[in-house]
Design a protein that fits this description.
383 residues; 8% helix; mainly beta; eleven-stranded antiparallel beta sheet
């Protein structure tokens, strides 16, 4: 009871949590032992709009045939069950080293969800899932610096790891006080434009859709993150890893999969993410990666073994995001009072090969890797 009371105080006041240990987290990897992944149905993509502290996101990562990389994202956030706020984010990375990126983050007003909760609406903004569940349309005129008009169509099934995609937090896991869930459309085609000051940018190309629900304060759920989105001519690979703070035993949870048009080749939790070389950031002491290695292992539906690896030098980072300087005010409120919380996101999008083996077949293809390394707090530091 005392731990529960301290946890409730942490939720409301932003204080750090006590050390519960690894028994207070149930990784989705336990589900994946029996069911490595589940293909998504339309109802699996409903907005939950929780009435307690949470951050819910729909994110579209775009890689255009012309070389532009961009992000379009809706964030739905609840602060301590007191206030709900929503934001539309759009980022277009410059194609020239050293030139500034376009970053627009706009508060949304008069937010509504469709009756089935599959589509999101606000003034001058709409993210709609089609009736057949095969494509999203994203439209935003909230910021005239980035007018978004996109259609994202999946070319492979969507999936979540395990049966529910959920990792649970709490000392009584039959009544968890927090959760983390991810769901993906790993391989999509994109069409449409993002109109910027210089004119419309054609985003015909490849895309990834990622849904995430952090059903608790983000800095309580995770201390660090790795995110990988590989898009090649024939294959796509996705990896998402987070490591909890010491409150939950510095536990690593990793999910992902590999897809091609029409098929999820494999999915599950038998993956790895390693920063094989770092240079360190002199401004904030985070271990900024310079070289990485990501691996996937699993089996196909018909039992063929699957192995894949992406490794190499990340090159110059695309961006370093000081989250507390750039995020909306509601996120600052969520992490208020958390000593040692200084979130930074390091972003890269190099060209690297995916080395894939399916049974006896070996495939190598080059693609674009969008990689994020996020540091929120030191996962080894005791609280």
């Amino acid at each position: 009871m005392f731990n529960w009371a301290k946890q409730q105080l942490a939720n409301v006041a932003g204080t750090q949590e006590p050390i519960y240990g690894p028994t207070a987290i149930k990784s989705v990897a336990l589900e994946a032992e029996k069911t490595p992944f589940t293909e998504l149905k339309r109802e699996d993509l409903t907005w939950k709009a929780m009435d307690s502290t949470s951050v819910e996101t729909a994110s579209f990562y775009l890689m255009s045939d012309s070389g532009y990389v961009a992000l379009a994202q809706v964030i739905y956030s609840n602060v301590a069950g007191i206030r709900t706020t929503c934001q539309f984010n759009c980022k277009v990375f410059s194609r020239e080293q050293g030139k500034p990126h376009l970053w627009c983050s706009t508060p949304l007003n008069n937010v509504e969800l469709s009756d089935d909760k599959n589509s999101f609406y606000a003034d001058d903004c709409a993210v709609e899932l089609s009736e057949d569940g095969t494509h999203y349309t994203i439209k935003s005129m909230n910021d005239d610096r980035a007018v978004v008009n996109l259609k994202i169509t999946r070319t492979s099934p969507g999936f979540q790891v395990g049966e529910t995609g959920k990792t649970l937090y709490g000392t009584d896991l039959s009544k968890p006080w927090g959760s983390m869930r991810h769901a993906f459309w790993p391989r999509c085609v994109a069409e449409g434009t993002i109109a910027v000051k210089e004119g419309p940018i054609d985003f015909k190309g490849r895309a990834l859709f990622a849904y995430a629900l952090q059903g608790m304060k983000p800095h309580h759920a995770a201390a660090t993150w790795n995110f990988v989105d590989f898009q090649g001519p024939n294959y796509s690979a996705i990896l998402m890893e987070f490591t909890t703070p010491p409150s939950y035993g510095t536990t690593s949870v990793i999910v992902g999969g590999i897809a091609k048009d029409g098929e999820i080749i494999t999915g599950g939790c038998t993956l790895s993410a390693t920063h094989t070389a770092i240079k360190g950031d002199t401004e904030n002491a985070w271990p900024e990666p310079t070289e990485v290695k990501f691996t996937w292992t699993g089996t196909t539906k018909d039992g063929k073994p699957v192995e894949a690896v992406i490794e190499g030098h990340l090159g110059e980072r695309s961006d370093r995001v000081d989250v507390m300087a750039e995020v909306p005010g509601f996120v600052k409120k969520i992490v208020a009072g958390a000593a040692g919380t200084k979130p930074y996101i390091y972003q890269y999008h190099p060209k690297l090969p995916l080395k894939l083996k399916i049974g006896d077949e070996e495939i190598i293809e080059e693609g674009i890797v969008f990689e994020e390394a996020t540091f929120i707090s030191d996962p080894t530091a005791s609280e």
